[in-house]
Amino acid sequence: MGDPDSLPKYHGLMWPTLQALKAIGGSGMVQEIAAKAIELGGFSEEQQAVLHKDGPHSELEYRLAWARSYLGTVGALENSAHGVWSITNKGRGLTQADMAGIPKQARALSYSQQKAKKAAAVDEEPEGEVGGNWKEKLLEVMLNMQPDRFEHLSQRLLREAGFISVTVTGKAGDGGIDGVGQYRMALVSFPVVFQSKKYKGSVGPDRVQALRGAMAGKAEKGLLITTGSFTPAAVKEATRVLPPIDLIDGDRLCDLLKQYSLGVTTISRVVEEVEIIPEFFAEI
Description:
Blueprint: H1 14-23, E1 27-29, H2 30-41, H3 45-48, H4 59-73, E2 77-79, E3 84-87, H5 89-93, H6 102-117, H7 134-143, H8 147-160, E4 163-168, E5 179-185, E6 188-197, E7 202-203, H9 205-214, E8 221-226, E9 229-230, H10 232-240, E10 245-248, H11 250-259, E11 264-267, E12 273-276, H12 278-283
Parallel strand pairs: 6-8, 7-9, 8-10
Antiparallel strand pairs: 1-3, 2-3, 4-5, 5-6, 11-12
Helix pairs in contact: 1-2, 9-10
């Protein structure tokens, strides 16, 4: 396992984050930005596998979330309601030397904002990302599920998302395939196999390769669902050759469960609050 001390602190990841956004066209989802920043930083698989505390997120993910949060606070980045981060004109004009002053600026801005809104200070957690929020609690609930129950949770999610004839196999000799289903699009449908894996930390390309090998001749697409995250190498492997494999990491899994109201409920308040329903996961 890698050493957390070998990783740059969050302020050392702000410049790679800006460079990553420029490299991918100025905007992107968290996973895209993180993958490019990690690529530009040349971080090893071992470094990417270092967990933040006991997981489920990696230390790099956690520190990159801080980097985005601080850059967003000073107006160098914008974050849309759909989770898309984009670089602003201010962000494009910043230099590497400017990074040193951003933490102080962000704390000052956050302090003035919390006085006005009586909100939590920025030093607690990056809002809406990696940290002590509802997603961490939800991931912890899923990590405590029995493996077969987690497979059935994946089955339920796929049904809600429009899959038909979804069955869980989960038997010895299945080559890592946990289930199969048909995804329906307008007038056509096509077979999809899926694997659901409870995992703390990052899933590497070997898992993607194993699923691709297991699905040969059985389906046109594969789906790999995990409570953890995927390394940039795993993301690249998923689309490197046919058949393609779609990846759902822990962050997106939480969003999908929230979207389909599976085990979570959103309380309508001035500030949205998501509440976990443990009974759902115990009974599924």
